[in-house]
Design brief:
2 domains, about 40% helix, Rossmann fold, 5-stranded mixed sheet, about 150 residues, alpha/beta
Length: about 150
């Protein structure tokens, strides 16, 4: 039987509170390693038409709804557009993003902020063209704004 201390305190290997820097560092390193070593089991995502997408949208949260709308609309017209909807942002699912974006000619990251996540995707994809479609004004990003980013990207 283990005793768990369920507070915001750090604890030692026996579950008792500790403020010793080496103990805290060891515990945090252990927890982060545990998560990062299981990123592919923990990562949650949905994909829509990624297998043949010429342009692939990568999005998450509320912006993914607008991205999905534009994908469905343009797919019905025969355009090869797809969506990778990330549902787990950390740990970053590098392998999954790389695999899903591999065959796309261009990637457009759609996010409701100033581009914090696009930088991570650019880092992972290296030389591949990655465009940004972002907005941060309290309004949901519109499918028209995404369409414009795809057209001008």
């Amino acid at each position: 039987m283990h005793r768990y201390n369920a507070t915001g305190l750090f604890h030692d290997m026996w579950g008792f509170p500790s403020s010793e820097p080496n103990v805290v560092h060891g515990l945090l390193r252990h927890l982060v390693d545990k998560i990062e070593n299981r990123v592919n089991q923990l990562a949650r995502y949905k994909e829509y038409y990624t297998e043949d997408a010429k342009h692939l949208l990568v999005s998450y949260g509320s912006s993914a709804r607008s991205a999905r709308h534009i994908v469905e609309k343009r797919r019905s017209r025969g355009e090869r557009l797809g969506l990778l909807e990330l549902q787990t942002l950390w740990p970053f699912p590098s392998r999954i993003v790389r695999e899903k974006c591999d065959d796309a000619q261009a990637v457009v990251v759609v996010e409701m902020n100033l581009g914090q996540y696009v930088r991570e995707i650019e880092r992972i994809l290296g030389e591949k063209q990655v465009d940004f479609c972002g907005q941060m004004d309290g309004w949901l990003i519109s499918p028209d704004k995404i369409k414009e980013a795809i057209t001008h990207g």
